[in-house]
């Protein structure tokens, strides 16, 4: 029996804000997205008179997110992604969940930086990071794909779809 309280991956979009044009771009035909996470470091607090180690939570260490695309050298967004990776520029990213189809826009904040303006009829996962890899994969009887790594910076933020 199918569950109705799940969110399917099909219909997910990955967006970024282009730092030059301040426009929101869709990364295109992504085929996988994973690793948007932070792990909590441990700080040891064990005293010498104890027989087992003890710890408290330390800093959050962001991981490396990875997404895959069916690469097309005629797609200007794919070319732009490679240019931004080569420049080492940190970007704002937004994952639009499949519980909606609205597209975000970019607005200037009080500091003059651009950030996402997110429609409330879709769930969002926001994070910041720079692309640290952009590999090209050529295989027999397959389309050309790329696996793109993003070094996440800071804590990802999940914004659920509005219930109204």
List keywords for this structure.
164 residues; mainly beta; Pnp Oxidase, Chain A; 11 strands
Describe, in plain words, how this protein is organized in 3D.
With 164 residues, the chain is mainly beta. The chain has one domain (13-43, 53-159): Pnp Oxidase, Chain A (Roll), CATH 2.30.110. The chain has one helix spanning 76-87, and strands at 13-17, 24-26, 30-34, 38-44, 55-62, 64-70, 90-96, 105-108, 114-117, 124-137, 145-159. The strands form 3 sheets. Strands 2-1-7-10-11-6-3 form a 7-stranded antiparallel sheet. The protein has a two-stranded antiparallel sheet with strand order 4-5. The chain has a two-stranded antiparallel sheet with strand order 8-9. The protein is globular. The model has no long low-confidence stretch (mean pLDDT 95).
CATH topology: Pnp Oxidase, Chain A
Low-confidence stretches: none
Number of helices: 1
Q: What is the chain-wise order of helices and strands?
A: EEEEEEHEEEEE
Tally of strands: 11
Mean pLDDT, to the nearest integer, reads 95
Tell me the domain tally. Answer: 1
Major pleated sheet? 7 strands, antiparallel
Q: What is the alpha-carbon Rg in Å?
A: 19 Å
Helix vs. strand class: mainly beta
Shape type:
globular
Summarize this entry quickly.
Helices cover 7% and strands 48% of the residues.
Which helices and strands appear, and what pairs or packs with what?
Blueprint (H helix, E strand, L loop, with lengths): L12 E5 L6 E3 L3 E5 L3 E7 L10 E8 L1 E7 L5 H12 L2 E7 L8 E4 L5 E4 L6 E14 L7 E15 L5
Antiparallel strand pairs: 1-2, 1-7, 3-6, 4-5, 6-11, 7-10, 8-9, 10-11
């Amino acid at each position: 029996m199918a569950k109705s309280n799940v969110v399917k991956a099909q219909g997910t979009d990955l967006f970024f804000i282009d730092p030059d044009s301040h426009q929101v771009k869709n990364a295109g035909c992504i085929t996988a997205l994973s690793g948007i996470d932070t792990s909590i470091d441990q700080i040891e607090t064990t005293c010498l008179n104890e027989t087992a180690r003890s710890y408290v939570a330390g800093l959050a260490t962001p991981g490396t997110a990875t997404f895959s695309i069916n690469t097309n050298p005629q797609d200007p967004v794919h070319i732009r992604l490679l240019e931004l990776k080569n420049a080492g520029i940190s970007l704002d990213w937004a994952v639009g969940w499949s519980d909606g189809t609205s597209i975000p826009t970019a607005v200037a904040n009080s500091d003059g930086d651009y950030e996402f303006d997110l429609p409330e009829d879709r769930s969002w996962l926001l994070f910041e990071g720079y692309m640290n890899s952009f590999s090209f994969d050529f295989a027999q009887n397959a389309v050309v794909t790329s696996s793109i790594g993003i070094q996440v910076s800071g804590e990802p933020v999940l914004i659920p779809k509005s219930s109204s």
